[in-house]
Amino acid sequence: MASSSGGGGSSKSTVADQISQSVQSTSNLLHLMLETSPSHSLLSKLPKKLLSKTSTIKNTELVLEQMPQVISALDAHVESGLQSLPHLDTVVQLLSNMQNCQLKSLSKIQLIQQESGPPQQDSKVG
């Protein structure tokens, strides 16, 4: 039994060593990149550029936090619009009827004018 707990401690130690080596390797690689990169000046300016974007990042965070509420409100408005769709159909039908009545009136006036001939003009020349 003692050997199994010892084995467990050994595997934990091995994992910890591997993590430590990975962190050290990554750190070394980053240092190497900074020292040998032709864009060293750009890499060193990166933290400052990120800091200058902090307000934009915070504003984006606020917008993203409010997004569910906005979507919910929009959904409620769409639902309300769908509820009033029958009323909209009635309004469209009324407007169509009004347009048809106006067109009938205009066509009657045109027929009367055509039957009576061209409009008479004064033949008096001064």
Q: Specify the helix fraction band.
A: over 70%
Rg, please?
Answer: 41 Å
The tally of helices reads: 4
Shape call: elongated
Number of strands: 0
The helix-and-strand class reads mainly alpha
Most strands sheet: none
Low-pLDDT ranges: 1-6
Keywords: Lysosome, Membrane
Biased composition (Gly residues): 1-10
Region (Disordered): 1-20
Subcellular location: Lysosome membrane
Question: Can you summarize this structure?
Answer:
This protein has 126 residues and is an all-alpha fold. It contains four helices and no strands. Helix content is 87%, strand content 0%.
Q: What does this 3D model show about the protein?
A:
The chain has 126 residues and is mainly α. It has a domain at 1-52. It has four helices and no strands. The longest helix has 35 residues, at 2-36. The chain is elongated. Mean pLDDT is 78; it is low at 1-6. It is found in: Lysosome membrane. One of its GO terms (cellular component) is lysosomal membrane. Belongs to the BORCS7 family. Residues 1-10 have a biased composition (Gly residues). Its main location: membrane.
